[in-house]
Amino acid sequence: LQLHHSGRYMCGGQVVSQWRESELVTVTVHRVPPSGVSLSVQPPGGQVALGDRLVLSCTVASGTGPLSFSWHREGSGAPLGTSPRLELRHAGDNDSGQYWCRVSNRDSVAESDPLNVTVL
């Protein structure tokens, strides 16, 4: 189902030699709120050497879209990214901290648990 399938429906058919129609039924399609938002990290454990690459991935167990993603770090104001994946190509001293992703489908928002990243 898609949101545009909402509407009023009826069916009709021939019974013996007479055309018959059902009552109208209203169908409303709703978005399923995002849930089960989780993070994974490479390298595992969230510990990365200074200057190395760190990749965070955000997955959603259920929810209908379109889904939008945003990445956040403790103490950082603006979102760090807007895709399901956040890549820090050269991890720096300032990249340590707690990270989480936020997922929205315009009707509702869900967040992952924070993940602690340590730059060694």
Structure description:
The chain is mainly β and 120 residues long. It has one domain: Immunoglobulin-like, CATH 2.60.40.10. Helix content is 0%, strand content 49%. The protein contains no helices and twelve strands. Strands 6, 8, 10, 11 and 12 form a five-stranded mixed beta sheet that branches. The protein has a three-stranded antiparallel beta sheet with strand order 5-7-9, with no helix packed on it. A two-stranded antiparallel ribbon has the order 1-4. The mean pLDDT is 92.
Q: β content, as a range?
A: over 45%
What shape does the CA trace take? rod-shaped
Q: How large is the radius of gyration?
A: 23 Å
The counted number of beta strands is: 12
Distance between the termini: 48 Å
The parts where pLDDT drops under 50 for at least 5 residues are none
- Discrete helix count: 0
How many domain regions?
1
Protein name: FCRL2 protein
Domain Ig-like: 34-118
Brief sketch in words of this structure:
Helix content is 0%, strand content 49%. Strand 2 and strand 3 form a beta hairpin.
Question: Helix and strand layout, with pairings?
Answer:
Elements: E1 7-9, E2 12-15, E3 18-21, E4 25-27, E5 35-42, E6 47-48, E7 54-62, E8 68-73, E9 85-88, E10 97-104, E11 109-111, E12 115-119
Parallel strand pairs: 6-12
Antiparallel strand pairs: 1-4, 2-3, 5-7, 7-9, 8-10, 10-11, 10-12
What labels would you give this structure?
rod-shaped, three-stranded antiparallel β-sheet, 0% helix, Immunoglobulin-like, five-stranded mixed β-sheet, 120 residues, mainly beta
